[in-house]
Amino acid sequence: MRVMGVGAHPDDLEILCGGTLARYSQQGHAVTMVALTNGDKGSESLPPERIAALRAEEMTRAAAVIGAQAWCMGVPDEFLNDDLETRMALVDVIRRFRPDVIITHDPADCHIDHQKAASLVFAAVSVSYVPAVKTQHPVHPVFMPVYYMETLLGLGFTPEAFVDITETFAVKKQMLLKHESQLGMMSARIGTDLVELIEVTARFRGLQAGVRYAEAFRPLRVGLRTSAERLLP
């Protein structure tokens, strides 16, 4: 399959579904990791242009750990919106990479950019197969199932599916560690170490799923978007 993860920021996918993306890659599926924003507000000391360039490099290195393609749409951090320009840009990204399944943020996640990402993915998926909607790349005639990855810290999220990441948790951690610019800054901002956060969360979900480490998901359930086939690895 062709698998696309869509995160609001350059490190979101590593934090919330990195182990699952690693499993897809190990199974031979083609993985694309998309960041909608450039993360240019992700530093207390570096100017926006510099931190954006640094985070693009970090994202590329993280994706390379699992042989994935990294793609950044470049919307300014903290200002993601489901407007015409951004929606059309995401439609074109979908048509460029032609995914069979998409993983993205849950609509109830805590960050406004995460919420907007969920809205954008739903809107873009809904029109990416419509021939009358013209973009640089040709129409992608697939009704793509969408899976929502859990919210940060799992608050307000009820899992419907789990992926055993016991064998890929070390890879998930390696991917996250590529985002060096964010580790100290985010620890100070949210009051906890990011590596500890992903391990505690994965262990908790693992206990729920009966394995050592797991990641949690729920499928988008609307007409023409629900598949009887499990597309998670």
Annotation keywords:
single chain, seven-stranded mixed beta sheet, globular, Rossmann fold, 233 residues, alpha/beta
Structure description:
By secondary structure, the chain is of the alpha/beta class. It has a single domain (2-219), classed as 3-Layer(aba) Sandwich (Rossmann fold), CATH 3.40.50.10320. It has helices spanning 12-26, 48-65, 84-97, 112-127, 169-177, 180-190, 194-209, and strands at residues 2-7, 30-37, 69-75, 101-104, 146-149, 161-164, 214-219. The radius of gyration is 17 Å and the shape is globular.
Would you summarize the structure shown here?
By secondary structure, the protein is of the alpha/beta class. The chain has helices at residues 12-26, 48-65, 84-97, 112-127, 169-177, 180-190, 194-209, and strands at 2-7, 30-37, 69-75, 101-104, 146-149, 161-164, 214-219.
Topology of this protein?
Layout: E1 2-7, H1 12-26, E2 30-37, H2 48-65, E3 69-75, H3 84-97, E4 101-104, H4 112-127, E5 146-149, E6 161-164, H5 169-177, H6 180-190, H7 194-209, E7 214-219
Strand order of the largest sheet: 3-2-1-4-5-7-6
On the 0 to 100 scale, the average pLDDT is 94
The helix count comes to: 7
What distance separates the N and C termini? Answer: 11 Å
Helix content: 40-55%
CATH architecture: 3-Layer(aba) Sandwich
CATH class: Alpha Beta
Main sheet overview: 7 strands, mixed
CATH topology: Rossmann fold
Label the structural class. alpha/beta
CATH superfamily: LmbE-like
Shape: globular
Low-confidence stretches: none
